[in-house]
UniProtKB/TrEMBL annotation:
Pfam families: TetR_N. The keyword Transferase does not apply. Residues 2-62 form the HTH tetR-type domain. This is TetR family transcriptional regulator. It comes from Deinococcus sedimenti. PANTHER family: HTH-TYPE TRANSCRIPTIONAL REGULATOR RUTR, TRANSCRIPTIONAL REGULATORY PROTEIN. Keywords: DNA-binding.
Length: 180
């Protein structure tokens, strides 16, 4: 079986979602993919390089998601597109969100990237709230509140603490006024 760097990254993402960065080990990845550890080193310099790539990919996916969501429509619809993507993806994506945030509390590189992702997310929410008619200070405060609620909802959903997060997602959207 010939593997690509993306095959390794995909497998690492799933292990990361389960157990965070400590779960992403070369030997475990090789077992998961039914190949030798040598195959890993053909594609990646070392485990840290793979984790850095995983972190970079997560940032890129988030940047792309926000850009896609802002392609038009009323503010509430733009935010709905982001929520749909975050919650309607595989359960792995919910768990990985929690893992990336937890990782950022213990790893300086992860903290820098996570801060950029969170800043982009809050800026996106602020733009949508401004578009919905709120003044700048109110939009910024409501964006922070909305983001904090979203992170809590993602965390609880990712851990399986909520059987159906849909009603709470709907309530999150009510924090965004209808477009005037």
């Amino acid at each position: 079986m010939t593997l690509t760097p993306d095959d390794w990254l995909h497998a690492a993402y799933h292990l990361f979602a389960q157990d965070g960065p400590d779960g992403v080990r070369v030997e475990r990845l090789a077992r998961t993919l039914s190949v030798s550890k040598g195959s890993f080193y053909w594609h990646h310099r070392d485990r840290q390089a793979l984790l850095t790539t995983l972190l970079d990919r997560w940032e890129t996916l988030n940047t792309t998601l926000i850009a896609h969501a802002e392609q038009g429509g009323p503010p509430r619809a733009c935010v709905q597109r982001v929520l749909d993507r975050l919650f309607d993806g595989a359960p792995t994506s919910l768990r990985s969100e929690t893992q990336f945030l937890a990782w950022s509390r213990t790893d300086p590189q992860a903290a820098v990237v996570t801060a950029r992702v969170e800043d982009r997310r809050v800026a996106f929410l602020t733009r949508q709230l401004r578009r919905s008619g709120l003044n700048a200070p109110d939009a910024a405060q409501r964006a922070e509140l909305l983001y904090a609620a979203l992170i809590g909802l993602l965390d609880r959903s990712g851990r399986g603490a909520l059987s159906d997060p849909t009603p709470l997602r709907t309530h999150l959207l009510t924090l965004i006024p209808e477009t005037p």
